[in-house]
Amino acid sequence: MALQVTERISVHDLAVEAAARMYQVEGYQALIRHQPRPHRYGRNPFDLFVPALERVEEVETAETLPTADLARLRRCREEGLQVWVLVQLDAVAAAYASLKGAADHVIPFWILEGGRVRFGLPRRP
Which residues of 16-32 are buried (b: 16+ CB within 10 A; e: fewer)? Predict the structure, then answer.
């Protein structure tokens, strides 16, 4: 008897992995679930950290956006890190309103058939 294992990857994880691949294709190191400065930004890792660009990225969906740690994102910006937030397409309007002052850019994303992720253009909130 053959055992078939199927694993559903969350929308969040699909977006994180797709964003990391985009940086890697361009020659950048992209660290998934990494915390560059735990003593400053807490122990929770960022979804993505790109050391060469001094950029942190967080992925939010309509469900997670209301609980995003905006104070932590503001601290990152104040200390010179770029903060980019990838937001599922149906939450973009809410993201522009809530992330003003906390993120440098908001990037919409959506999932195509087969789990392929597409990104829109980065915009300031």
Answer: bbbbbeebeeeeeebbe
Q: Which residues contact 105 (CB under 8 A, 6 or more apart)?
A: 82, 83, 84, 85, 122, 123, 124, 125
Separation in Å, CA 52 to CA 6, 56, 122, 123: 36, 11, 19, 21
Instruction: Enter the pTM of the model.
Output: 0.88
For the chain, domain boundaries? 11-119
> pLDDT at position 8, please?
64
* CA–CA separation, 55 and 53 (whole Å): 5
Distances from the Cα of 117 to the Cα of 28, 82, 91, angstroms: 19, 22, 16
pLDDT tens digits for range 67-125 = 999 999 999 999 999 999 999 999 999 999 999 999 999 999 999 988 899 999 999 99
Domain 11-119 fold is Trna Endonuclease; Chain: A, domain 1 (3.40.1350)
Structure tokens at 88: 């599922």
